[in-house]
Amino acid sequence: MKALADISNFQISEVGEEVCPKCGSSFKLYHTPRGVLGACKTCADRELIQSLNLPTVEDLQKMKLSKFVEQLEKVTSDIKNASVKGYKPTHESQIKAKQIVIKYINEFDGKKSIVFSGNPGVGKSHLAYAATKAIRSKGYTAVFIKSTYLLERIKASYSLNSNVSEEQIFDMLERLDLLVIDDIGSEYVKKNDGYETWASEVLYKILDMRIEKANIYTTNYTESELTDKYGNNGPRIISRMLNKAIAHRIEGKDYRRQEVF
Description:
By secondary structure, the chain is α/β, with parallel strands linked by helices. It has ten helices and eight strands.
């Protein structure tokens, strides 16, 4: 009984600090009935989380981004099964485009970009989506989306009934390892005596936030045509599209068209 009484009257006091040899965090030491004791809370918390098999903050962010990709990506049936191997070039420029994509996938570093231009039906979207799937299969986050649909989704976020805000969409787009915007220039841009339209302003904002990241852009327009289409924003948009990018124009016949008369 005397021993129990002695323990109950014991005053625990702080006696110093120690650096954890595992993580480098500091923790306090206390004088206790069992001697001087202390424990690293950082390591103890980590071990508890591991034992419970809970997702980390990084895991949760990746899950959120993957869900965003699933909801945002919309692919037409003609390229749904596109692959690099399945692209059959019929023109010298198409052979070069395929080589560019193969190298891009093999050497992907999350920083370089590709700009494919050319008439409809030469395989720009096919190669772009094939690259998206290949990069994604390597564990990176990537999304393929047409410029018109992307702008529609952003405009829809302004509705009071929307479950996602414009800011959230921009945040997710910025965090992607690879963003592929297909058919740039197909969106309607109304010229208004030099004043920028909403579409060109939003497109510029997206390209600007992605300037140090990996992107693939496709367009039916030439550089000068896009510059003219986007007015005062034209040179800024083109500049960001071409930043750290391989630009290549694909020639050839429209594989979607067949002569009907």
